[in-house]
Amino acid sequence: MAEKFVSEFRHYVVRPIAFEAVLRIRCTSSINIHSFFGNCFVRAHDLIALANVSPDVSFGVQISIDDTLHENKLAIFQSALLFTSSNGDRRIRVHTLALPVSSDPQHIYNNLNIDCSVSLLAKMAVVKANQASLGDAREALQYAVIDPLVKYRTDYCPQTKRFRSAYGTN
Length: 170
Prior knowledge:
Blueprint: H1 2-14, E1 18-27, E2 31-37, E3 41-44, E4 47-53, E5 60-65, E6 74-84, E7 90-100, H2 105-110, H3 114-131, H4 134-156, H5 158-166
Antiparallel strand pairs: 1-4, 1-6, 2-5, 3-4, 6-7
C-alpha cells in the first residue's frame, strides 16, 4: 500500500505540466465540432482554454457530420495546443490524424475504440448529471450503451436471429 502511494505521488510530482494552454481543433469541411467534454472552458466552437495540462489529462470531443462524406475521402482532424512550459517558454504542439471514412456499420463496429468510447460516455454522463439529475444521466448512459449493442446483435449475429425466430420473439 505504501509503495503504491509513493509511486503515485512521485508520478504526480515529477510529471511534466503545461500552463495557460489553448487548444484548437480543426476538422474536414463536412465535419463540425458539436461539444467538448472535460475540465475546460470553451472560448469558441473549436477553441478551448485550459488552466493546466499534463499527460494524464483527457478531453472528449463530440463531432457532427453535416454533409455526406464520400467513402474514398479521409476525415482529417488537426489539434494545436499552445502552452507555457514549466520553464516559462511558449510552445506549440500540433497533431494531425487522418481516418478512413466508411459507410459499412460492420467496419465501424470492428474498429471501435472501446476505451475512448467509455471515456467519452463517462464525461457525457457527468455533464448530464450536472445539468439535469443523476437519474437522467444514468438513463442516458444506459441507452447510449444498450442501443448500439442491440442494433449490432440484431444485424450482425445470425445465431441470435435464428434463436429469436425459433421462439417467436423480436
